[in-house]
Amino acid sequence: MNPSHRRWARASLVALWLGTAGVSLLDWQGISHALLSGTPLPPAWHGAAIAAGSAADALLGLALWRWDRPWVYRACLVLMALMTLVATVLQPALWLHPLGPLGKNLPIAALLLILQDLTPDHE
Predict the structure, then answer these.
(1) Which site in 4, 18, 29, 63 is 20 to 30 Å from 11, CA atoms measured?
(2) pLDDT digits (tens, 9 = 90+) for 63-86
(3) How many angstroms separate the CA atoms of 95 and 112, rounded?
(4) Terminal alpha carbon distance of the chain
(5) pLDDT tens across 85-104, in order?
(6) Spatial contact of 50 and 36, defined as CB atoms under 8 Å apart
(7) Which residues contact 58 (CB under 8 A, 6 or more apart)?
C-alpha cells in the first residue's frame, strides 16, 4: 500500500473513532438514549453504557493516532468485535438499518487487518 494511502487510511479510522466518541457525548440524551431505549438494558444503565462506549471509542482513536503498531489494530478489532456483538444482542435490527451502523464494521475490520499486516512490529 502506498505510504500516503496508509496515512489516509489511519487518519480516516482516527476520525471515525474520535468522531463517534464526540457525537455520543454531544448527543447524550438523543440518539444514543433512543437506541438503548428499545433494549433490555435498564434505563438506569443507559448513561454508563453511553459513557463507556464513548470512552472506548476515544481511546481507540487516540491509540490509532499515537501508535502505528499491529497491537493497536488488533485492539481495535477486538473492541469493535465486542461492541458489534453487544449491539447485535441488544439491537439485532441494526443489521437491517439502511445506513449500516453495524454493517460498516465489516469493511472497517478489513481495513484494520490490512493495516495490521502492513505494519512492522517495532516493540
Answers:
(1) 29
(2) 999 999 999 999 999 999 999 999
(3) 20
(4) 22
(5) 998 998 898 899 998 889 99
(6) yes
(7) 17, 18, 21
